Amino acid sequence: MGGRTDEFEELRPLLFSIAYRILGSVSEAEDAVQESWLRFEASATVPRSVKAFLSATVTRISIDVLRSARVRRERYVGAWFPEPLLSDPYEDPARSAELADSVSMAALLLLERLSPLERAVFVLREVFDFGYPEVAEAVGRSESACRQLAVRARKHMSEGRPRFEADRGEREELAAQFFDALREGDVLGLQELLAAEVSMVGDGGGKAPQLARAIIGADKVARLLASVFPGMARVEVSFEQHEVNGQPGAIFRDRDGKVLNALALDIADGRIQAIRSVINPDKLRHVGPVADAWAVDQEVRRAMRRGDTLED
């Protein structure tokens, strides 16, 4: 039994990474991996290829979960974003940049447009480079059907494929400048770093304060950020830069160190193209203890009013 456990643990990072890209949920991906282990443990015989068996198992479980999750997401309040992923357990140094881009918020939102089968085929074939026989086994379709699914999926993805700064060093440097300008409330500094049509959107799911709609445009986004962060700093909200879904981002915390939100930046052409913030507490519990966002919001508003009075 120890050997079977060892084989599973060796493949766990891959299984989680497949499930997360299909589901866009850390908690659901972890559940899918655990269910895969239970089925593997219960199987009477050892499969000829443990990797093929477990990859197929976690894929089928994820497809079933995604079908039911789709219904819930249709009723979701406001913008829906994936649960933030702070580190991808699956590593392939030769394809690290490609893997990071495939788990970005932008890429996962594009995957939401695909059917569950198309999404699974795309993830296995395009992201993890599975052969068509393995893909067909995993999704329970013929190889020819999988090739057709892959063509459709690639077409949908290429139509809206996100662009990212090719040089990771330049991406990180621009993100550092952004967060420095945010700390300083530097409107002009922020404007210089934002694309003309930058968008800022928050996912609160109706369970935390969120923007009523996306804020579009460098001037509007810069002014909003520069006006809000000083109030957050006054109530001891802090943030640490952290990779979020393979892209530059930050984790915001209240004065007690509890998680307030996760923010991810899309950077291309030397500018920040999108700012996405996940505030829904249900999507942050895997990061750590979650702050009371409503209470922090009220505290920030009071601090901003006091600040205005002092400046007057």
Verbal overview:
This protein has helices at 2-23, 26-42, 50-74, 96-102, 105-111, 116-127, 132-139, 143-159, 168-184, 187-193, 218-234, 293-311; strands spanning 194-203, 215-216, 238-241, 249-253, 259-268, 271-278. It is of the alpha+beta class. It folds into 2 domains: 2-159, Up-down Bundle (Butyryl-CoA Dehydrogenase, subunit A, domain 3); 168-311, Roll (Nuclear Transport Factor 2, Chain: A), CATH 3.10.450.50. Strands 2-1-6-5-4-3 form a 6-stranded mixed beta sheet. Strand 3 and strand 4 form a beta hairpin. Helix 1 (2-23) packs parallel to helix 3, helix 9 crosses helix 11 and helix 10 (187-193) packs across helix 11. The model has no long low-confidence stretch (mean pLDDT 92). This is RNA polymerase sigma-70 factor. It comes from Streptomyces citrinus.
Topology readout:
Blueprint: H1 2-23, H2 26-42, H3 50-74, H4 96-102, H5 105-111, H6 116-127, H7 132-139, H8 143-159, H9 168-184, H10 187-193, E1 194-203, E2 215-216, H11 218-234, E3 238-241, E4 249-253, E5 259-268, E6 271-278, H12 293-311
Parallel strand pairs: 1-6
Antiparallel strand pairs: 1-2, 3-4, 4-5, 5-6
Helix pairs in contact: 1-2, 1-3, 2-3, 3-7, 6-7, 6-8, 7-8, 9-10, 9-11, 10-11, 11-12
CATH topology of the largest domain: Butyryl-CoA Dehydrogenase, subunit A, domain 3
Task: State the separation between the terminal residues, measured CA to CA.
Answer: 72 Å
Strand/helix succession? HHHHHHHHHHEEHEEEEH
By secondary-structure content and strand pairing, the structural class works out as: alpha+beta
* Strands in their spatial order, largest beta sheet: 2-1-6-5-4-3
Calculate Rg over CA atoms.
21 Å
Strand content: 5-15%
Helical stretch tally? 12
**Can you give the helix content as a percent range?**
55-70%
Uncertain residue segments: none
The tally of structural domains comes to 2
CATH level-two architecture of the largest domain: Up-down Bundle
Oligomer: single chain
Strands, count: 6
The main β sheet shows up as: 6 strands, mixed
Mean pLDDT: 92
Supply the CATH superfamily name of the largest domain: PhyR, sigma-like (SL) domain
User: What best-fitting shape do the alpha-carbon axes yield?
Assistant: globular
Under the CATH scheme, which class of the largest domain?
Mainly Alpha
